[in-house]
Amino acid sequence: MDKEDLSQIEEDCNCYTCKNFSKAYLRHLLLSEELTFYTLSTIHNLFFFNRLMEDIRRAIRGGYFKEFSK
Ligand SMILES: [Zn+2]
Q: How many domains does the chain have?
């Protein structure tokens, strides 16, 4: 992570962390050993996996999981 990168972790992510904090700020928290870094990164990671599981369930219901998994 670049210390001047003001973009969010994942551009199309709507989680609290991505909507409110830049990569530069998260990098600062990590290097400062602020525990807030772990809270914010966990929020993004849980949001990511929740969205992934929704997409997988949708692919299974839609009968295109094999293509989706590639
Ligand atoms: Zn996010």
A: 1
CA gap 26, 32 in Å, rounded: 10
Q: What is the C-alpha separation between 35 and 70, in angstroms, rounded?
A: 36
User: pLDDT tens, position by position, for the chain (70 residues)?
Assistant: 688 999 999 999 999 999 999 999 999 999 999 999 999 999 999 999 999 999 999 999 999 999 999 9
The rounded Å distance from CA 25 to ligand 1 centre is 14
Q: Establish if 9 belongs to a structural domain.
A: no
Q: Residue 8 domain-assigned? A: no
**pTM (2 decimals)?**
0.84
Q: Could you tell me the distance, in angstroms and rounded to a whole number, from the CA of residue 19 to the centre of ligand 1? A: 7
